Amino acid sequence: MSSTGNQGFGVKAAKASVSELECMLSESPSSDRVCLKLAQILRVRRSEVALLRLEKGSLRFIFPPELRSAGVLPLTGSAVAARTAATRSPLLSNTFMRVKHVSLFEAVKLGAEEEGRSQEQMPIQKIMSVPVAPPGGNVMGVVQVSRKGLDATLAGADFTGEDLKQLEQAAEILARMPFMQEGAEI
Fold first, then answer.
1. Whole-model pTM?
2. Taking all residues of the chain, what is their mean pLDDT, rounded to a whole number?
3. pLDDT tens digit string along 156-168?
4. Which of 97, 134, 146, 158 is 20 to 30 A from 165, alpha carbon to alpha carbon?
């Protein structure tokens, strides 16, 4: 089979995966369940997915659960998530460690019991950040997917434009999830 044929199969499989998120809408799933599915779709670890909801002009983590009580990110701040929400612009960076960024949240232990301890406090090497908003609607939050590791080569494959497209499709579906509504129970 030609490599083009393989790529076509990969794209079809990927689209089917994003549609699995859409199928979850009727089940009113938890943010945890949806984010775990998103990690599976984009082939990252649970600890490499973050979902933030806009509340009273700031972004609050709703996933991972360990960061729910970590405070909020003001939209006027310099955090990548704040810039993503404020500018409504997606970001893909495979050289994230070279970019000056707030690393406070990277120090929080995530999912150590579920994943090997080796990944729990690794720095983010690569990241995609996308606003969560219905088509033509207001930003409701931000979804971020990262790859962590001691260095970029240990973090895994670079994110691609196709990965970003998948995350943007997922973000539109996330905008329809009940837990993304301001004030909704997480």
1. 0.83
2. 83
3. 999 999 999 999 9
4. 97
The sign one gets for the Cα dihedral 35, 88, 159, 18 is positive
Asked whether the beta carbons of 35 and 48 are under 8 A apart, the reply is no
3-180 to CATH, choices 3.40.50.300, 3.40.710.10, 3.50.50.60, 3.30.450.40: 3.30.450.40
Determine the pLDDT at residue 16: 53
Asked if pLDDT for residue 104 goes beyond 70, the answer is: no
Q: 64: cis peptide before it, omega within 30°?
A: yes
- Tally Cβ neighbours within 10 Å of residue 81: 25
Task: Quote the pLDDT of residue 122.
Answer: 84
